[in-house]
Write a structure and sequence with these properties.
about 625 residues, alpha+beta, six-stranded mixed beta sheet, 20 helices, about 20% strand
């Protein structure tokens, strides 16, 4: 080869070789190949280096000189397409000495490639030369040079120099590719090393946290201690919500408003509803500042036990998130343990309450009662709570468990002995008074607690309401069953009238207790028989007789107080009462008539809607 090259060409080749060997960066070498080749071959005014892409099975322009690069880079040539493709296919250097030969070769271009070529060059070349690049006998690309001067063209002697440059380019490209592969291997090894180090760090931190939490569990510290430890370990705010979205335990840097806590609760509920195991991350504003949220489900699907929520100033690291996943496993075990203890305790108490409820008393039951500080001579009151429409409530068992816990907290926090337990799908609350107490005082206090209980249930947004029946105070363990059965009758009274979220005390039922065994149809007939004419009068004349009668009865037949209550003059109320007597053909001062009217008026609110339906029918 050297003998075929002139002295000047040898000097040019040495120059090209020095430049190509001055770098190992493949992009720099690709660019240098074209710059140097165009500079040492006299007729060359521009050129393109094409490299073969095996995935696309075509030649791709990788570098050029004096062309519009942004257009040329989109050209894709198949073997045999244009001058470059012909040289690639022929595997030898080809010269296209004049424009006629150039036109003939470019006629093989696809329509799109022809458009791109004409857009990237100033004019069609007057002469071109193409040299394939070989690496280990495989053609890896083509160097194409163009002359845009009609007085300059390529000659056969240019072939030797261009092929020599092609050989140098092949060597330089191979070295650069090997260097790039080595560099990429080193980078991959470094990345792998970082990944392994990170995984080791995650594993080590997870093991540390897991061991510490396991120790807390073994020592019986409970969920509060676990959440405190997590807070201390990651220095972030931590909240644990149960499967109903109720806050079980939390640790905050600063106090949190109830409205802000509700936002976090809603987010936890969304995680529970999706029933998917994943790390969820979002943003939330608390106290005017923006925080990142990380949520991890506790337990396994399809029924999660809760959600661990982390409120942090910034993004949680993967190391901490991995450790928290292990923490969730420990939390799950603790929750399962606490529920098992709760259920065992419930079974024990339920057996006792079942015996007291049935009235089957013996010495064993009396001794069990003493463990709960229930004296055989004490005074007792039974309450029975029931979910309205329990069959249509999701998470019913979880809600009942919460109601039992609420019952123990709400009803027994005022230094009153007692117990709340689950009995089938009802909650039984048994209150104990160690000495004779004022019946009126106890009933007032209990009604207030029941009202607070119902309001708290409403605030929970569980999609349910609770109706409650209250038995009377009974003396001695042997009479507890009577209070139980009275509470049951109160619930039957509520259900019989299709009521919800109601509170009924057996003592307040009064004479209505006598009607509990009557059918609904009989009670409706009784109301219509007694109050029917007044009801029809009000409907036909849009009168106010019935409300006036109710006000009169509610205010113990005091006409002045009743008139003030419904905002009418006393004379107006007196007139209405006389009209009622005429319609009913009864004297309101007659004791027998008054009893029937008062009883029918007492029953009316429970059957109001059904009475309207009956009348229309």
């Amino acid at each position: 080869m050297k003998e075929a090259l002139s002295h000047r060409q040898l000097q040019s080749l040495i120059q090209v070789s020095n430049v190509l060997n001055s770098s190992l960066d493949i992009d720099t070498i690709i660019h240098s190949i074209m710059v140097q080749t165009v500079s040492v071959i006299d007729a060359a005014h521009g050129g393109v280096l094409f490299l073969y892409d095996s995935k696309q099975d075509c030649l791709v322009a990788r570098s050029d000189n004096n062309f519009k690069t942004d257009v040329l880079s989109t050209v894709r040539l198949k073997a045999g397409e244009s001058m470059t493709g012909l040289a690639f296919e022929a595997r030898k250097c080809l010269i296209f000495p004049n424009r006629t030969e150039v036109k003939k070769a470019t006629a093989t271009l696809s329509e799109e490639n022809l458009r791109l070529m004409l857009e990237s060059i100033p004019t069609l070349p007057f002469s071109s030369i193409c040299a394939p690049i070989f690496l280990k006998e495989e053609c890896i690309g083509v160097i194409t040079l163009d002359s845009f001067n009609p007085d300059l063209q390529f000659f056969p002697e240019d072939i030797n120099l261009l092929m020599a440059i092609s050989d140098q380019a092949a060597v330089a490209l191979e070295k650069a590719s090997l260097y790039k592969e080595k560099d990429e291997s080193i980078r991959q090894l470094e990345l792998l090393n970082k990944t392994i180090s990170k995984q080791n760090e995650m594993l080590s931190r997870s093991v540390d946290i897991h061991n510490s939490l396991a120790e807390l569990v073994l020592n019986g510290e409970g969920l509060d201690s676990i959440i405190q430890y997590i807070h201390k370990s990651i220095s972030q705010q931590v909240l644990l919500f149960d499967d109903l979205g109720e806050l079980v335990s939390s640790v905050f840097h600063t106090p949190v408003q109830e409205s802000e806590l509700n936002i976090l609760r809603i987010y936890a509920l969304e995680i529970l509803e999706k029933k998917e195991i994943y790390r969820s991350r979002a943003e939330v504003h608390i106290g005017g500042s923006k925080f990142r949220l990380a949520a991890l489900p506790v337990g396994t699907k399809p029924q999660f036990l809760g959600v661990l929520l982390i409120v942090s100033d910034g993004e949680m690291s993967d190391v901490d998130m991995g450790a928290l996943e292990h923490a969730c496993s420990v939390i799950s075990l603790e929750i399962v343990k606490e529920r098992a203890i709760y259920e065992s305790h419930e079974r024990m108490n339920a057996d006792l309450i079942e015996s007291l409820y049935s009235g089957n008393m013996d010495e064993t039951i009396i001794q069990q009662a003493k463990h709960l500080q229930f004296s055989s001579e004490g005074y007792y009151m039974a309450l029975i709570l029931q979910l309205d429409e329990a069959d249509n409530i999701p998470n019913k068992n979880s809600i009942i468990r919460h109601l039992v816990q609420m019952g123990n907290r709400v009803f027994l926090k005022h230094h009153v002995l007692g117990v709340a337990i689950q009995h089938h799908e009802q909650i039984i609350v048994l209150l104990s008074f160690q000495q004779k107490v004022s019946t009126k005082f106890v009933e007032t206090q209990v009604k207030e607690l029941v009202s607070n209980f119902q309001e708290e249930v409403h605030r929970k947004s569980w999609g349910t309401t609770v109706s409650i029946g209250i038995g009377r105070i009974q003396s001695g363990l042997t009479h507890i069953s009577k209070s139980f059965h009275e509470a049951v009758k109160c619930l039957q009274f509520i259900q019989g009238f299709g009521q919800k979220n109601k509170l009924v005390s057996y003592k307040d039922l009064g004479v209505q207790r006598l009607l509990l065994q009557n059918s609904e149809e009989e009670l409706i007939d009784f109301i219509l028989d007694v109050l029917g004419p007044v009801m029809e009068y009000d409907v036909s004349r849009k009168g106010e007789l019935l409300p006036s009668l109710f006000a009169y009865l509610e205010h113990n037949q005091n006409a002045k107080e009743a008139a003030e209550a419904i905002h009418v003059h006393t004379n107006t109320l007196t007139y209405r009462l006389k009209r009622i007597e005429e319609l009913l053909s009864n004297d309101l001062n007659s004791s027998s008539s008054f009893l029937n009217i008062h009883l029918a008026a007492s029953l009316y609110p429970f059957f109001k809607n059904k009475l309207i339906f009956t009348k229309k029918a």
